[in-house]
Amino acid sequence: xxxxxxxxGSLSTAKELLLxxxxxxxxxxxxxxxxxAADKRKARRGVWRVxxxxxxxxxxxxxxxxxxxxxxxxxxxxxKPSFMLPYYLIVALQLVAIAAFLWIGPKKLLDxxxxxx
Length: 117
Description:
Blueprint (H helix, E strand, L loop, with lengths): L10 H35 L6 H22 L7 H24 L1 H11 L1
């Protein structure tokens, strides 16, 4: 059963939403880590770098885990306050969004979204 064929707000739709969300986060986390790693390699070689705005944007769309792993694992950008402050703000907003999602629950969220259309 595909996502579009289920009833809005049904339990199977909620499970699919969680699965697709999880797969999205795994993918964007991996991509974000790769961008940070590429930027670290480029910094060592002294060549063109990935713009900080791109790295922060990747974190903002869900890649903050990959960004965090690269920041601490590769020691990249960790000593730059002008980068770390926006990164921490992004992580804080994402934690608030996750808390709200867990508080509301996926089924209620789907019911709300389906009623809005």
